[in-house]
Request: fold
Amino acid sequence: MRFASGTIVYAALRAIVALAVVFSALHGGRRAWPIVGQAVADATCLAFLVAYVDYDLRASLGWLALPLLLYVVGWEGWGALRAAGTESDSAADGVGGELLGWLGGFWRFLYRLLLVVPPVGAGMFLVLGLLYPGGWVFPSMPAPLSCTPATVARGDTLTLRMIGGHGGELGVFTPAHGFLYIVDYAPNTAPPSARFEYRQRFALPSATATGRVMQAAPPGYPEVPIFTDTGTYRFRVSDAAEVSASLGCTIRYTGDRKAP
Reply:
């Protein structure tokens, strides 16, 4: 939590400095296209920093993080090369070129080291997380399996959200019927749309959701309503043949909603 808060504070301070750079360039009569290019790079750096500590933004960016990262690296690298090769009055020196150029190369280097390297590093980790899921642990990672809401009344819809890879079976321990199968493992020949292991969200209307109970006699899997008695319901995602059941979440069912 402290790391996430520090990152947000750093991102806010960087945004303030970036705005100062842009306004300095505008009042200095610079050409429009370098200013726009710099603004896009600054906005991308801000997005990288926030996405590093915020799962929702990280998921929204997805593979867009890769071209954005290439753009920032190319823009800042080109600006650094221009600044190193010439002392001309350029608006495209990269971050800090307009504001700190008159202070000399050392301050320009320090500016890039403190305000360019961290967001670019964050962007690289975002891409790494896409190329190798689970290869890097980000702050504020949600639970692999979550159930919302935590308290369900009749008529509510329970939503299961699964993060990353998971098994292909879904079941629930209920107060009335014991364990119920909700989704069975699909064979390898089934299309991806029919395989539960590719699902990231699964909705269960409390009034109509059903599960199957396995019994010895008579043979078969009778289908029964899931939500009947009040109490605690524990949902479980597992692999085929219940070899692994490491993902679970618990909710409380309260029955009919009481009139106000």
In short: The chain has seven helices and ten strands. Strands lie at 145-148, 151-152, 157-162, 169-174, 178-183, 201-205, 210-212, 223-225, 231-238, 247-253. The helical segments are 2-27, 32-53, 55-61, 65-85, 97-100, 105-115, 117-131.
